[in-house]
Write a structure and sequence with these properties.
Layout (H helix, E strand, L loop, with lengths): L1 H16 L4 H16 L3 H18 L4 H17 L3 H16 L4 H8 L4 H18 L3 H18 L5 H17 L3 H18 L7 H15 L2 H19 L6 H10 L1
Length: 256
């Protein structure tokens, strides 16, 4: 219903205001959001990529849509493998955050988070992107900043932010073939996750697979397989035998 209404309003608004009016561009952002929630990433990217450059050029005071557009595109580019583009969006968001002028707009986009939590969120995403790009010079700088945040403001951070951080550190060390460090941080993430929930569909399968891959690299195939069979059982018990998370589990069992 929201999608259909928005399309009708867009057609009428373009006729009344013209294609580059702020009211029209706002509707492109709404449609981008709607298609993102519908998992139609191609259309979401198309609408936001159209509206964002016009908004930055013609309506730079419209900071909310500028933050929203960069935020959604950073996620879309990451999911579609456009890592360099994702990094540019994340760096721009961090630059805006550090101006200390737009916190109210940031919390509308990111939710009711503190500035430190928003910074942690952006830096975690940057760490993931630079790790995927094997740019370890950049990851070292980001890790130093993240470590400082964790040391100085740990009480402001929630458990899932720390889990995400530990997992990203593990991925970074794995890509650098520092296997023991990778295992240490994957286990830190898993232990913290286990302390707050028995099963989290967005976190447990990824961590089990990450740890199993480290065991495989170490040549400890039995430990890897035991963990993967345990992961298979827990995923099936929680989500059923056709859960998408099983694909990577079975793939990794085959590799062992």
């Amino acid at each position: 219903k929201a999608e259909n209404f928005c399309y009708k309003l867009l057609d009428e608004s373009k006729k009344y205001y013209g294609p580059e009016d702020a009211n029209v561009l706002e509707l492109y952002f709404y449609l981008g959001q709607i298609h993102y929630y519908l998992q139609d990433f191609k259309k979401s990217k198309e609408y936001i990529e159209y509206a964002l450059p016009f908004t930055i050029k013609l309506y730079p005071e419209n900071i909310y849509n500028i933050i929203l557009g960069n935020y959604v595109l950073s996620i879309l580019y990451t999911q579609t493998g456009d890592i360099e583009k994702a990094i540019l969006k994340l760096e721009y968001l961090l630059e805006l955050l550090y101006t200390d002028k737009y916190y109210e707009e940031f919390i509308i986009v990111y939710g009711e988070l503190t500035k430190v939590q928003i910074e942690m969120n952006i830096l975690n995403s940057m760490l993931q992107s630079y790790t995927n790009n094997y740019n370890f010079e950049k990851t070292e700088k980001i890790i130093k900043r993240l470590n400082k945040i964790v040391q100085e403001t740990k009480n402001e951070l929630n458990d899932y932010e720390l889990i995400h951080y530990f997992n990203n550190l593990g991925m970074n060390y794995q890509r650098k073939f520092e296997i023991e460090n990778a295992l240490e941080y994957f286990n830190k993430a898993l232990n913290l996750l286990n302390s707050i929930t028995q099963f989290d569909v967005s976190s447990h399968p990824a961590l089990w697979n990450n740890i199993s891959m480290v065991y495989t690299i170490k040549g400890n195939h039995k430990k890897a397989i035991d963990l993967l069979y345990e992961a298979e059982k827990k995923i099936i018990d929680s989500l059923g035998s056709e859960a998408s998370g099983l694909f990577e589990v079975y793939h990794n069992i085959g590799n062992n």
